[in-house]
Amino acid sequence: MNIIGLRKWFYGLSLLIILPGIASLIMFGLRPSIDFTGGTMIQMRPANQITINKLRAVLESNNLRDTMIQQSGNSFIIRTKPLSIEEQRSLVSSLESQLGKITFDKIDMVGPTVSAELVRQAIILVVVASLLIILYLSLRYKPVFAICGVIALLHDVLVITGLFSIFGVLFHAEVDSLFVTAVLSTIGYSMHDSIIIFDRIRENMKFIKKHSFEEIANFSTLQTISRSINTSFTVVLVLLSLLIFGSPVIKWFIIALLIGIISGTYSSIFNATALVVDWTNFRKRMKEKSK
């Protein structure tokens, strides 16, 4: 199979996924959780069966109209504006008086100062991680590998953020500190797969002298593709189990990891090495023209 020879089709598939996400990011952005905006989160389990509409009616009677409600079975997660201790007590009392006995698993409040610090730290983490990856790849391989590897990482970040922008519009999915963790994990996992292919290319170039760089790159990719797919598949199975049987609190975190692992595997196999080949061919043509 000539994976490198079909690279334009794989570029096109990537654009087909990325462009709608970029459009959604421009028009709607991401839907930040209270981790970044500040607010109060309440996780509760009513003893009686209730509906979201009935719960929302109680919240609106307490002047909480712009409230996010998530339901899993008879468990509810409420995200609303910052509430003082007195307001929290009043809301709890109102919920219990109108909905019956309720078990409150968690009531968390994040202030705007903490949320601003989280945003700053999230940006710093992504930038520092990207710079360290560029430095490592530049020292271990040629700079072209570092640049193309980071472009592939940018592909994965755009896939995750773009899809979550769309999910925010369609399903009210929010991005929180766990989302940042998922993005950073994707960056590390994707680069891990790319490095395996880059290492194989470097080793093959020492012993295969009669073939072009494009042929060596394709051969190296084919040598490692089964390992990459099998490794990712086992991780996907674990994440699917967590998604089906795990807590609804971490549902979107698991979905972000799933998207990241699949996208990272795809970009490592079909994009990163292909970009190195295109870059190498371009520089070769420029040298020939200069002569």
Secondary structure elements and pairings:
Layout (H helix, E strand, L loop, with lengths): L6 H21 L6 H4 L1 E8 L5 H10 L6 E5 L2 E6 L4 H15 L2 E9 L1 H29 L2 H29 L5 H31 L5 H33 L5 H40 L1
Summarize the structure.
Helix content is 73%, strand content 10%.
Looking at this protein, list some descriptive labels.
single chain; 291 residues; alpha+beta; four-stranded antiparallel β-sheet; 4 strands; 73% helix; elongated
Descriptive notes:
The protein is α+β, with helices and mostly antiparallel strands and 291 residues long. 73% of the residues lie in helices and 10% in strands. The protein has a 4-stranded antiparallel β-sheet. A hairpin with a 2-residue loop joins strand 2 and strand 3. The chain starts with 6 loop residues before the first helix and ends with a helix. The model has no long low-confidence stretch (mean pLDDT 86).
Mean pLDDT across all amino acids: 86
Report the count of strand segments.
4
**Rough outline:** elongated
Poorly predicted spans: none
Counted by DSSP, the helix tally is 9
What kind of sheet is the major sheet? 4 strands, antiparallel
Report helical residue fraction: over 70%
Radius of gyration: 24 Å
What is the distance, rounded to the nearest whole angstrom, between the alpha carbons of the first and last residues?
35 Å
- How much of the residues is beta strand, in percent? 5-15%
Q: What structural class do you assign from the helix and strand content?
A: alpha+beta
Could you spell the SSE succession in H and E letters? HHEHEEHEHHHHH
Task: Report strand order across the widest sheet.
Answer: 2-3-1-4
